[in-house]
Automatic annotation (TrEMBL):
Key words of the record: Copper, Disulfide bond, Metal-binding, Oxidoreductase, Thioether bond
Protein name: Polyphenol oxidase
Cofactor needs: Cu(2+)
Cofactor annotation remark: Binds 2 copper ions per subunit.
Taxonomic path: Eukaryota, Viridiplantae, Streptophyta, Embryophyta, Tracheophyta
Residues bound to Cu cation B: 320, 324, 353
Cross-link (2'-(S-cysteinyl)-histidine (Cys-His)): 173-190
Domain Tyrosinase copper-binding: 160-365
Length: 573
């Protein structure tokens, strides 16, 4: 939920209004809100428009002439939310370690441009083709290798240069930008509904820059097909030391033929057949079982004026995060791929994210007639800045990312073996919840530190729901107030009514999902939440009539650094 920052300069001695005027009732009334605010500002020289043409919330609020107390603002806060915009490159700062107040030892601020153009998707004349990396031809690999070589050879201050491109990722994740319109809050495009659209734009321009360098308008990035057993190893093209696609800063134990582990915890502890089977279950959960609602796939809403890290979607916190850490060096900071500040320096990163981008397209197709995208203007109108293939700084919008074909590229078609991989229960009809010694959720249990397994009984507000109820609303396990240090890799798994209790076996219906986080350099405590779909899981365990479920939180990495605020079950559509 959108909340105003506590340190916001909005606190005034204004009279307390118990009922906000109707202009704050709904975000859709923003236009009317704007008019009223402009009237309110008459005679003021202050502009309501920021340099990006966005409505500046602070000016609005200050311009309200003290109509509001902070308490009112918080209670009606979501109506104030405005789409994330910008950022302002002139105000990029290297960033501070928020724990130590020391400046970071990495500077990833981009070159500043005098002109920003609103980007229009060019008409598609030729489709770019994105092949599966493990199926790519020698000819394609040679072309790609050449393009990256040319990118590395561009002048260091050219925004299309390889390191400059790597820094684009660093700057948008390492808390180097203030939010435009709420400068006391930072921009973080991960762990929220910006994850898919932002990375789609990032790859889009990266691909166009490479295509331009080799003069090939059909060039498309390869995707690392890690959701298919045939692609579950580092793609060979990245491993040849003489190639421009090589990076020395990788976990040397994970070079081919090691199987990629989509549930990687920092140590590869199970054998290959179990890894592959786990991987397919992870994919099924992330793409089918746990994503009945938009928020669960995309991540939680995050706007100007709201705190970063509201909550990651399934793929982001699961397979995506696991492979970042699996590829990077086996050190606490995990360069290059295992840390958000450095992952753009790893050519394999772009291959990894091209698959994430492909999964977005597949998920939208799987939705059929169900809603595929938020219709919320706070999402559709959100904007980011990138340098395009002509080194022109452009402003792009989320609303232009919804259809990859309109963006001029498509993916090679390959099998999706996880699609029919619905896991089966190990302990059917177990009524585990009635025989366990685990305590019920109450205020004495949370907040709980995850330095050991936490088992708790969670009450279900509704039971024996009809088919129709389940179609209308998904039952969701919400784990909230997850507090972590953002500079560390952390991970925990969640099991429901699990009597098998082997934490390395994930190919079973009892496995509900995970939380994990790729570290970034800027160490700060962040508070986030996850939601795990239960409707299908409860069906598979045959416990839909039970009043409680037994939830096990199993720390897998950095448990000492994870605190859980609470657990509950909700229903959402
Ligand atoms: Cu922006 Cu996979 O990270």
């Amino acid at each position: 939920m959108a909340t105003l920052p506590l340190s916001s300069p909005l606190t005034t001695n204004a009279p307390f209004l118990t009922k906000p005027p109707s202009i704050f009732i709904h975000a859709k009334q923003r236009d009317r809100f704007r008019v009223l605010c402009e009237q309110n500002q008459k005679g003021s020289t202050k502009s309501d428009e920021t340099s990006n043409g966005k409505f500046d919330r602070r000016n609005v609020l200050l311009g309200m002439g003290g109509l509001y107390s902070a308490a009112n603002l918080v209670s009606s806060s979501s109506t104030f939310a405005t789409p994330l915009a910008g950022p302002d490159f002139t105000k990029c700062s290297r960033g501070t370690n928020l724990n130590t107040s020391q400046p970071l030892d990495v500077d990833c601020c981009p070159p500043v441009a005098t002109e920003i153009i609103d980007y229009k998707l060019p008409p598609v004349t030729k489709m770019r083709f994105r092949p599966a990396a493990h199926l790519a031809t020698d000819e394609y690999i040679a072309k790609y290798d050449k393009a990256v070589e040319l990118m590395k050879a561009l002048p260091a201050d050219d925004p299309r240069n390889f390191m400059q491109q790597a820094n684009v990722h660093c700057a948008y994740c390492n808390l180097t930008y203030d939010q435009v319109g709420a400068s006391d809050l930072k921009i973080q495009i991960h762990n929220s509904w910006h994850f898919y659209p932002w990375h789609r734009w990032y790859l889009y321009f990266y691909e166009r820059i490479l295509g331009k360098l080799i003069d090939d308008p059909t060039f498309g990035l390869p995707f690392w097909n890690w959701d298919n057993p045939k692609g579950m190893a580092m793609p060979a093209m990245f491993v040849k030391t003489s190639s421009s696609l090589f990076d020395a800063r990788r976990n040397q134990n994970h070079l081919p033929p090691a199987s990629t582990d989509l549930a990687y915890t920092g140590t590869q502890s199970v054998d290959t057949p179990q890894i592959i089977s786990n991987n397919l279950t992870v994919m099924y959960n992330e793409m089918v079982r746990n994503v009945q609602t938009l928020e669960d796939f995309y991540g939680a809403r995050y706007n100007t004026g709201t705190q970063p890290d509201p909550g990651p979607g399934t793929v982001e916190r699961g397979s995506h995060a696991a492979l970042h850490v699996w590829v990077g060096e086996a050190t606490s900071s995990g360069e290059d791929m295992g840390n958000f500040y450095s992952c753009g320096r790893e050519p394999m990163f772009f291959c990894h994210h091209t698959n994430v981008d492909r999964l977005w397209t597949i998920w939208r197709d799987l939705r059929g007639s169900k809603t595929k995208d938020f219709i919320d203007s706070d999402w559709l109108d959100a904007s980011y800045l990138f340098y395009d293939e002509n080194a022109q700084l452009v402003r792009v919008k989320v609303s232009d990312t919804l259809d990859n074909k309109k963006m001029g590229y498509d993916f090679q078609k390959v099998d999706t073996p996880w699609l029919k991989n619905r896991p089966v229960a190990r302990a059917k009809k177990s009524k585990v919840a009635t025989t366990t010694a685990a305590p019920s959720v109450d205020s004495t249990i949370f907040p709980a530190k995850l330095d050991k397994v936490v088992k708790v009984l969670v009450p279900r507000p509704k039971k024996s729901r009809s088919k129709k109820d389940k179609e209308n609303e998904e039952e969701l396990l919400v784990i909230e107030g997850i507090e972590v240090d953002t500079a560390k890799f952390v991970k925990f798994d969640v099991f429901v009514n699990d009597e098998d209790d082997n934490p390395n076996t994930l190919d079973k219906a009892e496995y509900a999902g995970c939380f994990s986080q790729v570290p970034h350099k800027n160490s700060t405590r962040s508070k986030t939440k996850i939601r795990l779909g239960l409707s299908e899981l409860l069906e598979d365990l045959d416990v839909e009539d039970d009043e409680k479920i037994l939830v096990s939180l199993v720390p897998k990495a950095g448990g000492d650094d994870i605190t859980i605020g609470g657990i509950k079950i909700i229903y959402a559509s």
